[in-house]
Amino acid sequence: MMRRTAAVAALAVLALGLAGCGSGTTAPDEAAGGEVEVFTWWAAGSEKAGLDALVGVFEAQHPDATFVNGAVAGGAGSAAKDRLESRLRADDPPDTFQAHAGKELTDYIQAGRLEDISALYDEFDLRKKFPTDLLRLLQDHGKIYSIPSNIHRSNMVWANPSVLRAAGVDPAATYGSLDEWFPALDAVQATGATPLAIATTWTQVNLLETVLMSDLGAQAYLGLWDGTTAWTGADVTHALADFGRLMSYTNADRDTLDWTDSTQAVIDGAAAFTVMGDWAVAAFGEQDKVAGVDYTYFPVPGSADQFGFIADSFTLPVGAPHPDGAKAWLETVSSLEGQTAFNRAKGSIPARIDANPDDFSAYQQASMTAFGHLSIVPSLAHGAAASITVLTAIEAATRAFTTGTSDLTTFQGDLAVSAGWRSGG
Ligand code: GAL
User: Which residues in the chain land under pLDDT 70?
Assistant: First the structure.
């Protein structure tokens, strides 16, 4: 609970600019039952294991309801979000869908896609169960539009100690900055192993955001999203150069892979490090890998004082065919039992403030502490910092840079345009 209090002020920054004109009616208050199509991108591996754990609680809490899995494969919703958009445009919404707290959710609210579910917060007694400023990221004009299931951290490095030892790198070494980390990557490079495993574009944007956090610091990183930090500045140029250098340590087949593959390269000992959100810890765990023995983790060097914030949440879309089933699903998502079962399997920490830390792994307990004490900064790659439109443009700019179509100067200009930055703020 203390961690939540400490996080509240920092989360308030994320809530800035969430004004708009949401629409919608109150969710129907019918008895739970019937089917519910749940749309996510938790389609395989440890992510499906997390969803399955939630479904297990759902089936116990709502035996009359039938879960219909609408998952679309592709990490970070790389395929799901497009598919969802075409379904919403065609007035064919699922009964509930996964959306990130912050700007991504605001997009859906302002497009009039979501029902106001504030009444469910009263019915399920949720008003005091989540951090106030997380709730603010789910609101528009005082109406709440989704229920958060979990909180992930984006700025983590995952490492294989055997690969490091083979390169003469101490697996217990700590790095205060990217500059301190580069020699370790060079040492691995010399052995022929992949220093830094990475995958397709969204994972590169995940890396990019952590480099910006590291090189700019929390304050200036936040400034990128509220117009007070110039995207065209020298500190951003420096960060992009570091990003380019990090990309030079990555596997050449990256654009054909997803995060599961790049994480697997670390698990299998083909690569020393990967930078990935902490859903990665669930992938290690699912394969019975032991923290501190088979793998280690630490914040991206230079960003240890920051918590790259991501929260998944579930919605009630306008026109959902089975609103009663959706309501039952939302009740399970919001419940302590649902959050405990789901997050234990997913690697994230519960959004609810009353979860018992003892129910979670050492990594997750550390993450709970980190969430309470660090600067909370919004993830770019996962919908907290930027709208889907801005993120899509930044992904295109990043792809151009990492595939060699643009150089650093062009990349920086593209990012400034994508983020809508103009001199003068
Ligand atoms: C994020 C999401 C996480 C996890 C990850 C990888 O966007 O918030 O829960 O699913 O993508 O797919």
Answer: 1-33, 423-425
Tokens of 68: 């219909």
Amino acid, single-letter form, for residue 356: N
> How high is the pLDDT of residue 266?
98
Write down the pLDDT at residue 133: 85
Work out the burial of residue 270: count CB atoms within 10 Å of its CB; fewer than 13 is exposed, 13-18 middle, 19 or more buried: middle
Residue with tokens 């983790």: 297
Amino acid identity for residue 173 in this structure: A
Residue 8, pLDDT score: 47
Q: At 217, list the tokens.
A: 């610091």
Q: What is the pLDDT of residues 133-174, one digit of tens each?
A: 899 999 999 999 999 999 999 999 999 999 999 999 999 999
Q: What is the DSSP letter of 60?
A: H
d(CA 309, CA 346): 15
CB-CB contact of 193 with 167 (8 Å): yes
Task: Locate 342 and state its tokens.
Answer: 């789901």
Ligand 1 touching residue 278 (CB < 6 A): no
Q: Encode burial over 237-257: b for 16+ CB neighbours within 10 A, e otherwise.
A: bebbebbeebbebbbeebeeb
Nearest CA to ligand 1 atom 3: 76
Ligand 1 center to residue 230 CA distance, Å? Answer: 29
Ligand 1: which of 103, 310, 343 to mutate, most ligand atoms within 8 Å of CB?
A: 310
User: 157: which strand partners?
Assistant: 275, 298
Ligand 1, atom 5, residue with closest C-alpha: 76
DSSP at 77: G
Whole-number Å distance between alpha carbons of 17 and 225 = 10
Task: Name the closest-CA residue to atom 10, ligand 1.
Answer: 76
For residue 37, list its beta bridge partners: 68
